[in-house]
Amino acid sequence: MTIGVSFANPPSLDLLSAEGIEFDQRQIKEGNVLSEKELEQQIENATSLEELAKPLEELLNGPYNVLPNGQLYEIKALVDQVNDFRLVIWPNDYPPPHFHAIGRDFAASFYIEPFDIKDGEINPPHYQKVKWFHKRAKGKLLRIWNETRLKT
Questions:
Q1: How far apart are CA 83 and CA 51, in angstroms?
Q2: Between the CA of residue 79 and those of 61, 87, 97, 108, what are the distances in Å?
Q3: Backbone φ, ψ for residue 140 (5° rounding)
Q4: Would you put residue 20 in left (φ > 0), alpha (ψ -120 to 50) or beta?
Q5: Residue 95: is the preceding peptide bond cis (ω within 30°)?
Q6: What tens digit of pLDDT does each residue of 12-71 get?
Q7: Which among 3, 39, 114, 151 is least surrounded, fewest beta carbons within 10 Å?
Q8: Residue 60 is inside which H or E element, if any?
Q9: Distance of CA 20 to the CA centre of its chain
Q10: Which DSSP category does 89 fall into?
């Protein structure tokens, strides 16, 4: 199967072939979606859970995938789409710290530290996207988790 991909910082064609991704080099071009750096900047600048949800929603709704080496890339042919996405940390939810990612075709919760699926179901490509997001948002997720604990 041949797919079109684009990268903010393109890896070598040998790396892509080693990862089992076949494509015509002419298909690598600038996309109209957010770059990895733009997504990371959104995570860095987020000051609320609502603002943190935006880059994860972009990852899950957009044509992204994650290579085994952790590099994010755009798939030109939309492979999957998730609508009605929500990122939730319930106030005073039971420990350990975790967050919920809820979409049209999945609902799962994830431990914040160490990252792992807590419960629910999510397909492997979406899991990799949530993992990519978590790596960059972990500190903010923990801060929000701690801020939502009711003081008694």
A1: 17
A2: 10, 22, 31, 20
A3: -70, -40
A4: left
A5: no
A6: 444 444 444 443 333 333 444 678 888 999 999 999 999 999 999 988 887 677 877 788
A7: 151
A8: helix 49-61
A9: 21
A10: -
Collect all residues with Cβ–Cβ distance below 8 Å to 89 and sequence separation of at least 6: 49, 98, 99, 100, 141, 144, 145, 148
Compute the distance between CA of residue 102 and CA of residue 97 in angstroms, rounded to an integer.
17
Phi then psi for residue 68, to 5 deg, are -55, -25
Task: Please state, in angstroms and rounded to a whole number, the distance separating the CA atoms of residues 86 and 12.
Answer: 35
Distance CA 43, CA 122 (A): 22
Task: Say if residues 51 and 31 touch (Cβ distance below 8 Å).
Answer: no
Locate 5 and state its tokens.
């991909």
Q: How far is Cα of residue 120 from the mean position of the Cα atoms in its chain?
A: 17
Q: Are 40 and 114 in contact (CB under 8 A)?
A: no
The span from the CA of 65 to the CA of 79, in Å, is 10
> Distance between CA atoms of 56 and 64, rounded to whole angstroms?
11
In this structure, how many other beta carbons lie within 10 angstroms of the beta carbon of residue 152? Answer: 4
Contact 75, 62 (CB under 8 A): no
The whole-model pTM stands at 0.57
Rounded Cα–Cα distance for residues 6 and 62 (Å) = 13
